[in-house]
């Protein structure tokens, strides 16, 4: 992409043309040239504001997803600290893959480097703009969390039941809808879920002869869990996603 022209480049030819035209048309030509130059200057000075408005518009378009991803990638550790590392990586990924290409295509590429922290701040604000629709507090214990997740699946049209058995083979919930059987392992954690949960739900999928398998958590997932889930076709979900979950066979 060609570098944006500087304001000096944009003003050069209007000033030259105005000066030449004034030799024939006098002050009227100079006045017209002055108006043109003033318009160019004002338009250039307003780029910063237009840049911010464009970033806000792009971030707001994805505010719901950003809010969800922020909750998925944030957790509180055993010491009461809010750990944002995963969310900060996700925020940067969104800005680089979604916002940056649009800004460059629309001629704002030269402003991005100097205003990158401003871009990230706007994305952060968009992620906090939508408050999750939770009518009840998240259950504190594992069994209550399983029932909570099953209720969310029921609300989405699934026939869901908790297994309530020691021999569940890694499935806390078995749900069916439109001929698709789903096994779910629920993890109410204070830290990201590891790949052990993925291994267990893969075993549960075979044991229950299920079409799909998912691990649901309030606290996000480790990179190892994400890698294994991708290789074994296991869904990794935040519980907020259950209400919109639709039946789909693997493959």
TrEMBL record:
Keywords assigned by UniProt, alphabetized: Membrane, Transmembrane, Transmembrane helix
Name of this chain's protein: Restriction endonuclease type IV Mrr domain-containing protein
Membrane-crossing residue ranges in chain numbering: 12-42
Annotated signal sequence range: none
Pfam families: Mrr_cat
Boundaries of every Restriction endonuclease type IV Mrr domain copy: 144-244
Transmembrane among keywords: yes
Protein origin, superkingdom: Bacteria
